[in-house]
Amino acid sequence: xxxxxxIKLILILLISMLLLVTYKTYQKLKADQLPSTTTSVxxxxxYVDKDVSDSTEAINLIKHDSTIQEKNCSTTIxxxxxxxxxxxxxxxxxxxxxxxxxALEIYNVLSRIYKEYSGIKGYVTNLTxxxxxxxxxxxxxxxxxxxxxxxxxxTFPMVIKSQILLNSRYYLNEDYAKSVINQEIxxxxxxxxxxxxxxxxxxxxxxxxxxxxxxxxxxxxPVFLTKExxxxxxxxxxxxxxxxxxxxxxxxxxxxFKDSExxxxxxxxxxxxxxxxxxxxxxxxxxxxxxxxHDYFLNGKSASKESLEIVKILDxxxxxxSLK
Length: 324
Hints:
The protein has 324 residues and is an alpha/beta fold. 52% of the residues lie in helices and 9% in strands. Strands 1, 2, 3, 4 and 5 form a five-stranded mixed sheet that branches. Strand 1 (92-94), helix 5 and strand 2 form a beta-alpha-beta unit. Helix 8 packs across helix 9 (227-241) and helix 8 (200-216) crosses helix 12 (285-299). The longest helix is centred in the first third of the chain and has 17 residues, at 3-19. The radius of gyration is 20 Å and the shape is globular. It starts with a helix and ends with a helix.
C-alpha cells in the first residue's frame, strides 16, 4: 500500500471510529440481548444459461457481482476492499458493514499470507460477509460454488467461485464473537492468541491445501471450467474434500517426527480441534493441517514442534508446486 493511501485510510478510520459510538455501545450488550444483525451482502447468486467464453469474462462477472453489493458499504470499507483485491487477486471482496479497524486487521493478515504464498493468488475468488444460518461457522472456506452454467446441454463451461465466508453473526457482533473465541481458547480448541481477524489463517491453510491438491492432480484453476478439464478437477476436489491429500501430508510429517507419541497425542499437542473426528471416528486431516498452520502463523518458532513438522512438509510441497 502506498504511503499516501495509508495516511488516507488512517484519517478516514479515525473519523469512522468517532461515528461508531452507537456501534461500540451496541457491542457491549450481553450475548442473549444481541439483535439479529445481518449483512446486506449476498454471495449466493447464480447465473443459469449464461455463456462465458474465457477466464477473463468469468473473472469480470465475479467482479461485477461483487461491485453491485457495495451500495450500502462505507467509503472506508470500499477502499480497504479495493486494496485487498489489488494485492491478493481476490476478485470480489465485500466486508461492507464490518468495523474498519477489523477490516484493516484482516488486510494485514492477508498481506502476510499472500507475501509468503504468492502462488495462491487467483484461487480464492471471493472474501465476503455472509448470513450463515449455521452459527457454528465463524469463518468457512467453500471452494466449489457453481456461479455460472452455460446454455449448452452439458452446462459447460462453468464459472466456479472459491469463497471464504465470514459469518455476520460474529463479524458484525464482535463482543459476542470474542466471548465465543475466548471459550474455544479455554477448551484448547483455539490458540491462546486467536482473534477474529487471524481466524482467517485457519481458512487459508485450507486454501493452500486445496491449491496443492489441484496441482497434485494436475487440475486447472476451476474459475473457468470446461468439460475437458472437469475430470482432473473433480478428482482433485474429491481428494481434497475426503481429506486424502491432507492425510498424506500428515502421515509424512508424523513419520519423520522423532518422538514416541501416538497419532492422537501428536494432533492434540497442536490443539484439541486438530484431532477433530467425524461421527464415524475418522480424523479430519484438513483440520489438523489448518490448526498446525494457524499455530505456526501466530507463534512462529514457538509453535508446537508437531505444528512445525507439519508446516515443514506443507512448505516442501508449496515450494515444489510454486506456491512459495
